Amino acid sequence: MNYYAGLDVSLKEISICVVDDTGTTVARGVSPADPEGVAGWFRTRSLSPELIVHESGQLSIWLQRGLAQLGLPALCIDARRAHKSLSARPNKSDAADAEGLAQLARTGWLTPVHVRTEDADQLRTLISARGQLIDLRKDLEGHIRRILKTFGIRLTGIGKGWQRQGFRNQLAGAGEREPVLRMIADGIGK
Q1: Residue 39 DSSP one-character state
Q2: 3 near 20, Cβ under 8 Å?
Q3: Distance from chain centroid for Cα 69
Q4: Domain spans, the chain
């Protein structure tokens, strides 16, 4: 007999439902929201599903990778498409959604989503963090320029990275004239 599992994932716990080939519910329950917890839940019940389905969401990439590393046949499906079929069910709860996902796994009526590799996510994280830091630096420089204009100090523009030192030198010069601006210049130089 083949078994199919559906996981309804939340931040604290995962509702699990397992159905057989005929669509009859074999087991249902809750596990901690981590791959080891899910694997342990299946182990304690001696269940080896053919397919484990969960929806795309906040934890889906991490969960998918963890389940794959544990050797579980997991598949992340498109949450928007799954929602269409799950919303037709009369009972709307985590347990009912898990059962609906298990039925989708059994019937094969699902749309898998691509789960990025960990290397791709690390690169995205670095690029995103760098972009955020650049935006913060630009915002800070613009804020300082606006503050200095109230004192009649107009700094030259920064078009290239090497001009950034010129900005710092101009700010330090303004700090020589105004003690309040000196504190700003000292903070930027660090």
Answers
A1: H
A2: yes
A3: 19
A4: 3-107, 130-189
What is the torsional sign of CA 90, 95, 101, 106? negative
CA distance 57 to 167: 44
Q: Which of 128, 175, 121, 166 is nearest to 148 (CA)?
A: 175
Per-residue model confidence (pLDDT) at position 190: 53
pTM as predicted: 0.71
Contact residues for 62 (Cβ-Cβ < 8 A; gap 6+): none
Question: By CB neighbour count within 10 A (0-12 exposed, 13-18 middle, 19+ buried), where does 103 fall?
Answer: buried
Is the Cα torsion angle 136, 142, 147, 148 positive or negative in sign?
Answer: positive
Q: What angle do CA 134, 138, 143 make, to 5 degrees?
A: 150
Tell me how far apart the alpha carbons of residues 74 and 131 are, in angstroms, rounded to a whole number: 33
Contact 172, 166 (CB under 8 A): no
What is the mean pLDDT of each successive set of 10 residues along the chain, which is 190 residues long?
Answer: 95 96 96 96 96 94 96 94 80 89 92 91 94 91 82 69 70 77 68
* pLDDT at site 176: 81
CA–CA separation, 42 and 31 (whole Å) = 10
Helix (H, G, I), strand (E, B) or coil at 176: helix
- Region 3-107: CATH code: 3.30.420.40
